[in-house]
Input
Amino acid sequence: MKAFSYERAKTPAEAAAAATRIRGAKFIAGGTNLLDLMKLEIETPVHLIDVNGLALDKIEAMPDGGLRIGALVRNTDLAADDRVRREYPLLSRALLAGASGQLRNKATTAGNLLQRTRCAYFYDTSMACNKRAPGSGCSAIGGISRQLAVIGSSEACIATHPSDMAVAMRALDATVEIVKPNGATRTIPIATFHRLPGGTPHVETNLQAGELITAVTLPKPVGGTQLYYKVRDRASYAFALVSVALIQQKDGTGRVALGGVAHKPWRVEAAEKLLPRGAKPTAERLLANAKPTHDNEFKLKLVERTLAAVLAHAKELRS
Amino acid sequence: MQDSEDINRREVLIAGAATAAAAALPYTALSQGSGTAAPVISKVSIEVNGKTHELSLDTRTTLLDALRDHLHLTGTKKGCDHGQCGACTVIAGGRRINSCLTLAVMHEGDQVTTIEGLGTPDKMHPMQAAFVKHDGFQCGYCTPGQICSAVAVLNEIKAGVPSHVSADLLAAPQVTNAELRERMSGNICRCGAYSNIAEAMAEVAGVSA
Output
C-alpha cells in the first residue's frame, strides 16, 4: 500500500473542499472496497478524508412520503430498517443478497454506489485494463468473461457494476443527493448516476471532482409485489451472474431492473410495458442489441428464465 | 517447553513469509514507483478487550495488523487480507467486521473485542466451549474469526436483523440451520467444519440444529 496522510472531516462541505484542495485525495467511509484496492495499489490516494464523523447516518421520513437515506447508513441498518422492510422490501432483499454480514456491517449506502467492478482483469495489475490504466487496452475482451457484461459494453470495457443495492434503487427511482466543494448541493437521478463505459471506462459516475454524496432519497412507496432474485455460483456471498429486481402491481404492470449484465444497473422503461405479456418478450426488449461474449451468452437465457421465475413467484404471492 | 515450541513455529512461519515476499519481488518492484511518499504516523486510542491502548501507527496499518503486530493479540488471524475469508473477524462497537478491511486510525475511541476478550482457556465463552464440544474445527486457523462471527450472529438474530433466507421480512428471524449457514457465509473453513459449527451455534442459542 502507498503511504497517505489522513484527516477526519467535520462537515460535508469541509470534506468536499479538502478533496478539491488536495490532488489525489479520496473520501473513506466503510472502506471495504477502497482499502482492498489500496492494498493492490489499484487505488493510490495520497490523502484520505475520513467522512465517518459526518452526521449522515440517519434514515428520515420525507414530507412527500418518501425516505431520505443518509450516505453513511450501513447496509445492515438499511436492510433492517422497519420502513424499508415494510414499504421498500425490494431494497432490503437486494441488500441482504449482497456481500457478507461482516461487510454489510461496515459498507455504507454511498460507498455501495461507488464500489468498483470486480472484473478479474481490473484487479490483476499485470493485465491490460482501460479502467485501471486508461489506454492500456482490455484483457477481458477475448479473456475469461463469464461474469462480465452482455449489454451496454464497449470495445474499451466489458466490466459490470457489482452492486445489488443499486439495482433495487434503480427500480425504485432513487435520487442521489450531493454536496459540492463550494457547499452548494445538487441531485442526480439514479438512472444517470452511473455511466456506460464508452471510451472512458475509468469515469464510472457523473460525480464531479470533490463532490460528496450526502444521501439517497426514495420517492413515496409504490407498493406492489417486490422481489429480488440473484443467480450466482454459490448460495451466498458471491457476486451475481444475473439478478432481477421486480416491482409488480395487481394488474400485471410494473418495473424491472437487472444486475450482473452491464456497467450500471440495467433498466429499460420501454420493456416494462411488455411485463403483462410475460418474461420472454420483456427479456428480449431489455436485452435488445446485447453483445455477449462466447463465455457469457448464457446470461441472455438466464435473464429470461430468472425473470420467468420471479414473475411466477409474484403471481403466486398476488393470488 | 510449550513457549519455545510456539516461538519456533512462529519463526518458521516468518521465514516462510520472507521467502514468499522474495518470490513476489519483481511484481512489487514494478508496482512501486520511485516517487513513493514517506510513511505518515498517526496517533489513535483504541479500547481492546476492556483495556485502552494509545498507539502511534503508520496510517496504512489495518486494525488487524494493529491487533496482531502492535498489541500482540495474535488470536485474530490473517487469512486472505481482502475480506473474503472472515478469519480476521472481530467485534467492533458491538458489530462483527473484517479487521483486515479497516484502518486502525479509523477506530479512535472504539471498543474492540477479539477472541482473547471473549474467553480464556480456563474460562471459555459458551461459544468457545460449544466449538470444542461439537468439533467445530480441524486445523483451527479460521476458528477465532468463526467464533467472533458466531457470537455476533446470535446477537443479530436476537436483535431482529433479517437475512437473505428469512422468508418473511416482517417476522422475527428464527435460529434455524438455514439462517445460521447464510449468516456465517462470510467465514470460510477449508477443513469444512461447517455442519459442526452450526451445531455449536445452535446449542448456544438453545435450539437443535
The beta strands of chain B are 41-48, 51-58, 89-92, 95-98, 111-113. The radius of gyration of chain B is 19 Å. Residues 2-23 of chain B form the longest helix (22 residues). The helical segments of chain B are 2-23, 25-31, 63-70, 115-118, 126-133, 143-158, 177-183, 194-205.
